[in-house]
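From the methods appendix. Each design record in this collection lists the tokenized structure first, followed by the designed amino acid sequence. Records were kept in a plain field format so they could be parsed without special tools. The example shown here is representative of the layout used throughout.

RECORD:
FOLD TOKENS (309 positions):
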């Protein structure tokens, strides 16, 4: 029985490695596909099975059943062997990629080498991203490397959200932590407030956000602090207290350590300056006009305040 197979591969310039991830290829295949492997790759491949069923085997492990929708993680240096059920086949899309950011995504739980078969709840969003990668790989596209590489980052995000253990049930816990983040409470007290053990809270927050409760709470506090510093004239000491720090000096040290600058400098950089005094078009020399404005553009807008950003 015939099957359908389309695939295209890239050889990205080393320049694009600085994007963190580069796409090496993608494909769409349907039907009674041949068995893959045993083989070992030097790259990451996300294989998304959208219809049908089959099996997957990693070297040294017993075979695992694969039922769509499901994700297969093929990781560098790991022997693997897989295929659809004979006669019926399956539908799959695959995206191959590499780059320094794969380590970060693995540590954050987006790529799961220890769990190569991942059940999914839905593949609609995944399909949309893969479609963009496929379009980026069209022949003679001068932006193929960048468009496809950026889309791989998005693919990892939507794959994480599509996992059936993506933590949708855990989101109320994160929302409650974010709501209470500014209260003077320890992690144990937050856990008790939520009717959980400290270990249970840590497991939920780690699973849902990729970080521990302390780091999550701190990110919420510092995010709000930045909003207040950039959007209000409140003194730094007031901002510190509003986001849960009784010691403004400690807040400033922590802010500096996490953001690389003290709160006062952050405020100076993010505060919008007053508009320039109004000028007439006669006062604007040709060289003083913005390079993207035609003379007509400049003449049509005398007296408009100069808005940056």
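DESIGN:
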């Amino acid at each position: 029985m015939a099957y359908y197979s389309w695939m295209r591969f890239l050889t990205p310039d080393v320049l694009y490695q600085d994007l963190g991830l580069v796409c090496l290829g993608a494909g769409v295949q349907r039907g009674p596909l041949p068995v893959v492997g045993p083989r070992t790759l030097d790259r990451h491949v996300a294989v998304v099975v959208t219809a049908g069923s089959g099996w997957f085997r990693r070297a040294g492990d017993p075979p695992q059943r694969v039922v769509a929708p499901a994700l297969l993680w093929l990781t560098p240096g790991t022997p693997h062997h897989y295929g659809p059920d004979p006669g019926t086949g399956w539908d799959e899309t695959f995206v191959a990629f590499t780059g320094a950011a794969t380590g970060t995504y693995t540590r954050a739980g987006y790529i799961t080498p220890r769990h190569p078969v991942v059940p999914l709840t839905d593949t609609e969003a995944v399909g949309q991203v893969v479609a963009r990668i496929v379009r980026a790989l069209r022949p003679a596209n001068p932006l193929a490397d960048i468009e496809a590489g950026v889309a791989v980052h998005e693919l990892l995000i939507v794959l994480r959200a599509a996992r059936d253990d993506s933590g949708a049930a855990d989101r109320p816990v994160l929302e409650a932590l974010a709501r209470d983040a500014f209260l003077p409470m320890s992690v144990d007290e937050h856990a008790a407030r939520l009717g959980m053990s400290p270990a249970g809270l840590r497991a939920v927050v780690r699973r849902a956000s990729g970080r521990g409760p302390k780091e999550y709470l701190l990110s919420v506090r510092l995010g709000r602090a930045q909003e207040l510093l950039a959007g209000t004239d409140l003194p730094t000491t007031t901002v510190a207290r509003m986001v849960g720090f009784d010691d403004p000096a400690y807040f400033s040290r922590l802010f500096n350590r996490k953001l690389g600058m003290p709160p006062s400098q952050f405020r100076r950089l993010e505060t919008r300056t007053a508009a320039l005094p109004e000028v007439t078009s006669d006062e604007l020399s040709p060289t003083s006009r913005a390079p993207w404005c035609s003379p007509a553009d400049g003449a049509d807008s005398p007296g408009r305040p100069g808005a940056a950003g």
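APPENDIX NOTE: Residues 144-162 form the longest helix (19 residues).
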